[in-house]
Ubiquitin-like modifier HUB1
Amino acid sequence: MPLIEVIANDRLGRKVRVKCSPDDTVGDLKALIAAQIGTKPEKIQLKKWYTIFKDHITLADYEIHNGDSLELY
């Protein structure tokens, strides 16, 4: 399956671009983001509008596609 690029924006001017698979879970994505920004994955919360993404659900299930932007808290 092709990789997708997801952008996480913390709204403080930091944007993190991460390449991952649609089959990855949100927890996997958090681990990739944590490695780039130097934070613990448990401290990261990913949202889109008012939906808080749960760690055990895949990106494909949330319909997160290539180039999608998520909010990083």
Q: What stands out?
A: Residues 2 and 55 are 21 Å apart (CA to CA). The domain at 4-72 is CATH 3.10.20.90 (Ubiquitin-like (UB roll)).
